Amino acid sequence: MEFSAAVERLYRLNTGVIGTGAARHERPHKPVLLLAVLDAVAAGQARPDRVPWSTWLRQRFAAYFEVVRSHDDTCAPELPFYYLRSDELWEPLIANPDGSSPLPAPPKARDADTGRVFARLVKGWDTLFADPVSRIALRDALIARYFPHARKALTPLFLEPALDLGTEETTVAEDDVAPEMPGRSAGFRRRIVELYDHQCAACGLRIRLPEPEVTFVDAAHLVPFSESRNDHPTNGLALCKNHHWALDQHLIAPDPSRVWRVSRRIDSRRSLGEKELAGLDGQKLLAPAESAFNPDPRGLEWRFERLLDQAV
To answer: Who wins on pLDDT, 279 or 213?
Structure first.
């Protein structure tokens, strides 16, 4: 498997969401287990073709989980150990006299260290997990996508050194991907566009052609990745080309109450284009259907503070 394709897949794990209201959030279990498996391979506690269900793996899971959990999350490594199979990168197995067969249900704590329950990485994931450089980069992708705000607290737990991709400003556009992380930009875009149902969060434009699939919206970061290393969906908006450009130029921005504001530099008398932008002021941001991925207030505040000359 190409590394870029692997990153795209990691960005779209079947995680599910839990909770209500402001506490609604994406379940952390699958990405946390993958962090533990990366450590297990690095430490010689597992091979990509045989990851034992062990006390060691459960403890690594618990160490990461304690950092990223929300108040209603249960530390249950047996669930992702079994259900990662739905993401087509992992096969949970049980040993029997004839070899092995698919694990029929999540393992129990008492099954740890028996040597009977294990999993294997498949479809090219085994090759990526075997390579130290790829392991470190995959871990960085998992942190950027699922746990960007916990990066500082997670770093001391890593069994391999952190990947230094740099955060220096460049002359490229805000959302261009750094060459060290192929697949990151595409993975972020695909996830954001899906969450917003291919609709611009500013004007509501939705054009999607099925064959070949074409959509007219982009994924824009609230806080640029070059500054935040944050690819969590709450740091993104789906925007059409025009409004993405205007956001990057700091001519429009959603305020913390999720209302669009327009820079005073826009003069509706000059052109129809500026008149259209000016008309956006005061309009509510169109949010994703799943409230767990509503824009992060911290990202909205970052954008609003940088609106040129503030609002009209």
So the answer is: 279
| Boundaries of domain holding 31 | 3-157
Q: What span, in angstroms and rounded, lies between the C-alpha atoms of 282 and 261? A: 6
| pLDDT tens per residue, range 199-236 | 999 999 998 887 777 889 999 999 999 999 999 999 99
Q: What is the pLDDT of residue 40?
A: 98
Domains: count for the chain: 2
User: Is 311 within the bounds of a domain?
Assistant: no
Is residue 178 one of the residues assigned to a domain? Answer: no
Torsion of the alpha carbons at 101, 1, 198 and 254, rounded to the nearest 10: 110
Spatial contact of 253 and 171, defined as CB atoms under 8 Å apart = no
Q: How far is CA 241 from CA 195, 205, 244, 256, in A?
A: 17, 10, 5, 23
What would the two tokens of residue 52 be?
């034992």
Is 164 part of a structural domain of the chain?
no
